[in-house]
């Protein structure tokens, strides 16, 4: 049983820290410690050592390596069998552990300890991989995984999970009851309203990518050398695209999700709106072949 083994024994037995492993090619920027609960960064590139098994996960020292092993061993050397990137899974794990802990701490006098969070993190990562490759496989992609958090059944599964975790159980064993039903009511209210499920920053991020591509394309056409004027128009374009995209999503709720936002670019009506916005902001025209002209 891992919990009965001394940290020094684990460290020596696994030998997954190797000083030669930090030389796997040049690093463009200093790395962060791989243990999710540590915010240390390298002072200089190459200061941290890497896991000697996968040669990818960096650590600031022995303690963080040992504490992270229960988590990292689930992903080390390609063990992640989902279609979701390791970093994304770890980000979801970290956010869920912190968010559920915040709720538990706010409703209880007993605070959740770091070790309880570590134990919950490893168990949650294993649970997430099982959920995404099983019952919730429709969220098993980089494009769709963001929509899992808005799914009442998925949220109920997480609430049930935390209701069984030491520290979290005192609060979530109560909150989990009827959790799905309350979320479904909120979701139904949102669908009937004129509000969007997608966060505005997500929509704006997608519009920034469209604007970036459009500005580069039109900049080559205009060639007027007025960079400050074009930069100003670029920001105006982002604002206009965001507003028109939000209005389109409100009228077409089937695209109001992370996965839907990836698909909306294939909708001809949406693309027509986007083309008109680009032409209006940059004062250009589009020919029959879809090329911008002055």
Task: Summarize it.
With 294 residues, the chain is mainly alpha-helical. The protein is built from 11 helices and 5 strands. The strands form 2 sheets. The chain has a 3-stranded antiparallel sheet with strand order 1-2-3. Strands 4-5 form a two-stranded antiparallel sheet.
Description of the molecule:
- The protein is mainly alpha-helical and 294 residues long.
- 54% of the residues lie in helices and 4% in strands.
- It has helices at 7-14, 62-72, 86-106, 114-132, 152-162, 169-175, 179-192, 200-222, 227-251, 258-263, 268-282; strands at 17-18, 49-51, 58-59, 285-286, 292-293.
- The chain has a 3-stranded antiparallel β-sheet. It has a two-stranded antiparallel sheet with strand order 4-5.
- Strand 4 (285-286) and strand 5 (292-293) form a beta hairpin.
- The longest helix has 25 residues, at 227-251.
- The radius of gyration is 24 Å and the shape is globular.
- The model is unreliable at 15-23 (pLDDT under 50).
Question: Topology, please?
Answer:
Blueprint: H1 7-14, E1 17-18, E2 49-51, E3 58-59, H2 62-72, H3 86-106, H4 114-132, H5 152-162, H6 169-175, H7 179-192, H8 200-222, H9 227-251, H10 258-263, H11 268-282, E4 285-286, E5 292-293
Antiparallel strand pairs: 1-2, 2-3, 4-5
């Amino acid at each position: 049983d891992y919990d009965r083994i001394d940290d020094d024994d684990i460290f020596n037995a696994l030998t997954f820290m190797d000083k030669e492993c930090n030389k796997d090619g040049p690093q463009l920027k200093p790395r962060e410690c791989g243990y999710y609960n540590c915010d240390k960064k390298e002072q200089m590139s190459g200061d941290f050592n890497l896991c000697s098994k996968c040669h990818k996960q960096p650590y600031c020292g022995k303690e963080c390596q040992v504490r992270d092993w229960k988590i990292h061993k689930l992903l080390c050397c390609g063990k992640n069998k989902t279609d979701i990137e390791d970093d994304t899974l770890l980000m979801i794990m970290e956010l869920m552990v912190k968010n559920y802990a915040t709720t538990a701490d706010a409703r209880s006098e007993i605070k959740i300890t770091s070790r309880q969070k570590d134990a919950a993190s490893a168990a949650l990562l294993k649970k997430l991989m099982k959920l995404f490759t099983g019952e919730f496989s429709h969220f098993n992609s980089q494009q769709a995984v963001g929509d899992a958090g808005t799914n009442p059944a998925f949220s109920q599964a997480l609430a049930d999970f935390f209701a069984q975790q030491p520290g979290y159980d005192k609060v979530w064993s109560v909150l989990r009851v009827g959790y799905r039903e309350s979320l479904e009511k909120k979701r139904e209210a949102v669908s009937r309203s004129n509000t969007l499920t997608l966060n505005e920053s997500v929509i704006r991020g997608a519009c920034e990518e469209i604007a970036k591509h459009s500005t580069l394309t039109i900049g080559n056409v205009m060639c007027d050398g007025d960079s400050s004027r074009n930069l100003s128009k670029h920001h105006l374009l982002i604002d206009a695209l965001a507003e028109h995209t939000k209005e389109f999503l409100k009228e077409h709720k089937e695209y109001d999700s992370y996965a839907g936002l990836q698909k909306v670019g294939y909708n001809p009506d949406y693309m027509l709106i986007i083309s008109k916005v680009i032409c209006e902001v940059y004062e250009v025209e589009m020919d029959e072949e879809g090329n911008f002209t002055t």
